[in-house]
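Tokens for Putative F0F1-ATPase subunit (Ca2+/Mg2+ transporter). Go.
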Amino acid sequence: MPKEPRRNDPSWLRYAGLTTELLVTIGLGVGVGLWIDRKARLSVPVFTIVLSLGALIVALWRVIKSTRDG
């Protein structure tokens, strides 16, 4: 007979925290990039592109690391 899932399983909190961390990291990268681009008055948003991609890489690396550790 299959075991019923626990109702008080807090694993969803872990994934909610990872999602929040991912969104905040990417949001900070984009926000800081936009701020630098405005201050530098660049016609091409170089810092926004670079920092948002960098933040995405860091955020995904942290999510993968967190999920692999168990």
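The chain has a mean pLDDT of 89.
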